[in-house]
Amino acid sequence: MTYKIEGKYYELTNEDISEIRKNQKEFNISEDDAARMFFEDWEYIEAGSKVRIERVKDIPTKKTYAKSEKPRTTKPRERKVDEEKGGILSIVRTALEENQISVTEQKTETELKFILGENSYTLKLTKHRQK
Q1: Pairing label, strands 119-124, 111-116
Q2: This model's pTM is above 0.85
Q3: What is the pLDDT along the chain (131 residues), one digit of tens a residue?
Q4: How many folded domains does the chain comprise?
């Protein structure tokens, strides 16, 4: 049997279980009261304390995961090109160039990097999905 007291688990031996059952018959008390009496006698808990004692079936174990020796195979993904976003960024790019702002880099159809004066900026375009 296993008991949980204040977050700690106590695995009882057959001798401990027989002592609990002996006390249960001798004093004509419930199994919970006999277990509390056992833990008080062996000073796991203080006598008369209101500590909760739970009987659990199994001690929960921490899951361990092993790494596979076989390397993962990753398939190359095809990225969808969003023409709409590309069109918007090309409009912004022409507007920047018309105002003598130098565009340094355009990363696909998602972001545009440019320099204004001594500072560099990045303009990133995000398309929100419909709910």
Answers
A1: antiparallel
A2: no
A3: 888 888 888 888 899 889 989 999 999 999 888 888 888 888 888 888 888 888 888 777 777 888 888 888 888 888 888 888 888 988 998 998 898 888 888 878 888 898 888 889 998 988 888 88
A4: 2
- 70 in a structural domain: no
Q: Give how far Cα 52 sits from Cα of 20, 27, 29, 56, Å.
A: 17, 21, 17, 12
In this structure, what token pair is assigned to residue 4?
Answer: 């949980």
Strand partners, 8: 5
**Structure tokens of 78?**
């095809």
Q: How far is CA 106 from CA 92, 113, 119, in A?
A: 11, 6, 17
The last residue of a domain, from among 15, 38, 56: 56
Structure-token pair, residue 35 = 């277990």
Distance linking the first and last C-alpha atoms of the chain: 53
Q: Which domain holds residue 89?
A: 83-124
- State the angle between helix axes of 14-27 and 31-41 in degrees (0 to 180), rounded to the nearest 10: 120
